[in-house]
Write a structure and sequence with these properties.
Radius of gyration: 20 Å
Shape: globular
Distance between the termini: 65 Å
Largest sheet: 2 strands, antiparallel
Number of helices: 10
Strand content: 5-15%
Number of strands: 6
Length: about 290
């Protein structure tokens, strides 16, 4: 490798981070949430598997129109950030943390909740983690997040994202075709199912990296809300108030329902639910606290 080639590669590697700092900030938050949840090995395995699933879906769509419909990337930054076979690296990476935070939010919704002192934990079990309900809810949560993200991303020329892609035909949802959301739903099912399979093996001991951070069970849902708020804020920033209002109204009732039901579920679990949680995850912080009903 010549000096010039090495220098160009280094510049692209640096540019990949400096051009998309918000993506890597969300990715760091994903690591902070996922590693204490399932450990380093499963987090790394899902990161690689999730990236490959996302990349395959994007490469297929720009070349065949499936699953998102026909769209294209504008090759305006390949000399400044990493691209892989016509797809920006950061774009496929985003699917990984979006899938995890959607799945973690689904677990928060589906699991009993235990609160003590200044802490809260989901009493999730292997059955809940691998359930069809977690798969379906996680996939829909990720898809609905894209309903907010994609319209403002399509206006990237008006903010620091930049205009990186477009659709062959103007879609009915702020320029986004409905086929895009069907594609996201299909891909989200694949991503969440992949995570469930990676997490399926029962470990005999706490996986390396698992730790009891305060409010660890809230880290995934908080990441989900952070992505949502960031994109709504960008929508307001570019002056698309009606687009932002649509996103806010779409989420207001579901968020209210989740919060109200969560408040009603705190410390209202059964001893059977608590026992199953402790049998499946004996290293859980909930296992060392007094049983509350």
């Amino acid at each position: 490798m010549s000096f010039a080639t090495g220098s160009a590669f280094f510049d692209i590697a640096i540019g990949t981070f400096t051009m998309r700092p918000y993506v890597f900030a969300f990715f760091a938050a994903y690591l902070l949430a996922c590693v204490p949840h399932v450990g380093w090995r499963r987090t790394i395995t899902f990161t690689v598997a999730g990236y490959l699933i996302a990349f395959a879906s994007e490469w297929l769509s720009i070349n065949t129109g499936f699953p998102y419909g026909w769209y294209y990337y504008l090759d305006t930054t390949s000399s400044r950030e990493l691209w892989v076979a016509g797809v920006p690296f950061f774009d496929s990476l985003s699917y990984v943390f979006l899938a995890y935070c959607s799945y973690a939010t689904a677990l928060f919704i589906l699991s009993p909740l235990k609160s003590w002192r200044w802490n809260l934990a989901t009493l999730e079990t292997r059955t809940i983690r691998r359930s069809l309900a977690a798969l379906v809810l996680g996939a829909f949560l990720q898809t609905f997040l894209d309903i907010v993200v994609d319209p403002v991303a399509l206006q990237g020329r008006r903010w620091f994202l930049g205009q990186i892609y477009g659709y062959r035909e103007n879609g009915i949802h702020f320029g986004v075709p409905l086929s895009n959301y069907w594609g996201w739903l299909l891909t989200s099912f694949c991503l969440v199912a992949a995570f469930q399979q990676i997490d399926a093996r029962r470990p005999g001991n706490p996986p390396n990296g698992v730790c009891n951070l305060p409010f660890r069970s809230l880290l995934g849902p908080v990441l989900y809300l952070s992505v949502l708020i960031f994109n709504i804020a960008m929508t307001f920033l570019i002056g698309e108030r009606f687009m932002a209002l649509c996103g806010i109204l779409m989420y207001t009732l579901p968020l209210l329902i989740v919060v109200m039901l969560a408040l009603r579920r705190v410390n209202r679990y059964t001893m059977e639910e608590f026992g199953e949680h402790v049998r499946d995850y004996p290293w859980s912080p909930a296992a060392t606290t007094p049983k509350t009903r």
